[in-house]
Write a structure and sequence with these properties.
Blueprint lengths: L4 E6 L5 H10 L3 H6 L1 E5 L12 E5 L5 H13 L2 E5 L1 H5 L11 H9 L22 E3 L6 H12 L11 H7 L44 H10 L8 H18 L2
Parallel strand pairs: 1-2, 1-3, 3-4, 4-5
Helix pairs in contact: 1-6
The structure holds iron/sulfur cluster (3 copies).
The site of one iron/sulfur cluster has 14 residues, from α7.
Length: about 250
């Protein structure tokens, strides 16, 4: 039986999602027998341009990325965004909040002009994406489950359960009642409310809900004596790009 050919590609990111893939495959050797990995810079030296499933880590951050992304899209039957950078710009999109030239000069000093970087975008703004595996980094088990679904001809879907629901089901004490702050009411669950379960507010690495109730969230912040500005750093760590989109849409 012919095994589906799978390729992994990296754009702007820290490669933590690819490392999670490598790590999770070590305990799921059955998957390595079910697929043929033909391109995965971080793990193998093979470089084939013939594949059916492409996993893409990282965001689009320069003009040359667009052509490369389109080339992958043309080849692959299925394209999967791997992690917060590919899914929604992730931490890279923090820089979109500053003038680009200031950011370039801050990082590269007098060599700022050498780099053709531009505002960060999720890959879904350049090419069609068939599925998203969210998180920063992705969850290894969620990745394995998604690959198994695809091999069965099904596509993984993003859970739309708010983090707060998952958190309540875990019987956590809300961090707001302990003087903390959390993005749980407006972000997607699916990680077993990992951060609130250890007493730390969620920072939204899995992305905003499809229709986040931002006015309700702002009202709730006010009830706890907070404003969106008070938790701006938390809100913009992963969500700079989606929040800017909401702002543009006037939501
Ligand atoms: S989503 Fe997080 S772990 Fe994955 S590449 Fe981006 S910064 Fe790294
Ligand atoms: S800790 Fe966060 S996720 Fe949990 S209930 Fe409170 S706001 Fe919601
Ligand atoms: S609780 Fe929030 S920040 Fe923590 S892993 Fe889950 S989505 Fe990411």
């Amino acid at each position: 039986m012919t095994r589906p050919k799978v390729a992994f590609f990296d754009f702007t990111g820290c490669e933590g999602c690819q490392l999670t893939v490598v790590d999770s495959l070590q305990t799921h050797l059955d998957l390595l027998e079910a697929v043929e990995i033909v391109n995965f810079r971080e793990a193998i030296s093979r470089r084939d341009d013939d594949y059916q499933i492409a996993f893409i880590e990282g965001s689009c951050s320069r003009p040359a990325d667009e052509e490369r992304l389109r080339g992958i899209r043309e080849q692959a039957a299925l394209v999967v965004a791997l992690g917060a950078c590919a899914h929604m710009g992730g931490v890279n999109a923090i820089r979109n909040r500053q003038p680009l030239q200031d950011v370039r000069e801050y990082v590269y000093g007098e060599r700022a002009g050498w780099y053709d970087t531009y505002p960060v975008r999720p890959i879904g703004e350049v090419i069609d994406v068939d599925a998203i595996i969210p998180g920063c980094p992705i969850d290894g088990e969620e990745f394995i489950a998604a690959v198994k679904m695809m091999l069965q001809g099904r596509m993984p879907e993003l859970p739309e359960m708010p983090m707060c629901v998952e958190c309540k089901m875990s019987e956590n004490i809300c961090v707001f009642t302990q003087g903390g702050a959390c993005l749980g009411p407006v972000v997607r669950g699916g990680c077993d409310s990992r951060c609130p379960s250890v007493g730390v507010g969620c920072e939204g690495c899995r992305g905003l809900l499809e229709e986040p109730n931002m006015p309700g969230y702002v009202e709730m912040l006010a009830q706890h004596g907070l404003t969106p500005t008070d938790i701006e750093h938390r809100m913009t760590l992963f969500l700079s790009h989606p929040l800017a989109q909401l702002e543009r849409e006037g939501s």
